[in-house]
Amino acid sequence: MSKRLRFILASAVISVCLWGLQFIVPEHRIQAIIAAVVLSYLMSVWVLFEDLKGIEWVTILILPVLYTLGAGLFSLFLPESLPRIFGQRLEADVARLAASGVRMLFWLSFGVGFYAMYLTENIFSVAAIRTIQLLRAAHAVGFLLTLVVAIFLFHSLISFKLPFWMLAILIGGLSLPLFLQGNWSMLLKEGLNRRIWLYSFAGALIVAQAALALAFWPIEGLTAALMLVTVMYVILGLSQQYLMGRLFKNQINEYVAVAVMVLVASFYVTSWR
């Protein structure tokens, strides 16, 4: 079986498994998500094992595993029905059918994202051995997918209404592997050197502190998640460019400008009453 066919098969299997969460009683969905995460790791090993070696058994597999976890948790908050669409009120049966369509579209998009993730991780694994022309494109896609995984995880954790200290610890803890794989992918060394650990711990700590501050901010869950992802976008983007020796003043200004715009927009949409 070709590697691309394995990518497609694994993406389809995991997508179908997570789509089936809606048919499981709510009390058992967390356990089902955990089982899907384990399956995701095993399937990812199956499709990528030919090029995995050393630290890649961890770094290459971080995104697929956390992508499954984040999408699974995020799906718990997808609507069971859509009573209104474009201001038009829907009948109960139509509302449930529309919500099913939304969930189906979500899992189709998830499967496409998983396939793109496998392609990206495969490029990283091969590029660690020899030079490959697609590496720059893989860096861009990997960066984007890291942010997608982050918004799934952050939105889910915020929506669980956890205590502020637990929210900060969990968000910081899940941010650390995202930073590690993101920073490692720029160098593709056999191990995680001191700089990668330092920048990753610093980035995770900053995101955790931002989560702690937002726990006291009267802001909606999705907006808070977008703010946290913006923090990750800035910190991870700066650290990646610095590791590659391509961090210049104009790039710093661009990242800072994005952060300021999102912060101003968040103040604008926040209800302070």
Q: How would you describe the overall organization of this protein?
A:
The chain has about 270 residues and is an all-alpha fold. A two-stranded antiparallel sheet has the order 1-2. A hairpin with a 2-residue loop joins β1 and β2 (about 90). The model has no long low-confidence stretch (mean pLDDT about 90). α1 runs antiparallel to α2 (about 30-50) and α8 (about 220-245) runs antiparallel to α9. It has nine helices and two strands; from the N terminus they run αααββαααααα. The protein has two domains: about 1-130, no CATH class; about 165-273. The chain is globular, with a radius of gyration of 19 Å. About 75% of the residues lie in helices and about 0% in strands. It has helices at about 5-20, 30-50, 55-75, 90-125, 135-160, 165-185, 195-215, 220-245, 250-270; strands spanning about 85, 90.
- Tally of structural domains: 2
Quote the average pLDDT: 88
User: What would the principal axes of the Cα set say about the shape?
Assistant: globular
Q: In terms of structural class, how would the helical and strand content be classed? A: mainly alpha
The helix fraction, in percent, is over 70%
Major β-sheet strand ordering: 1-2
Number of strands: 2
Number of helices: 9
What is the chain-wise order of helices and strands? Answer: HHHEEHHHHHH
Cα-based radius of gyration, to the nearest Å: 19 Å
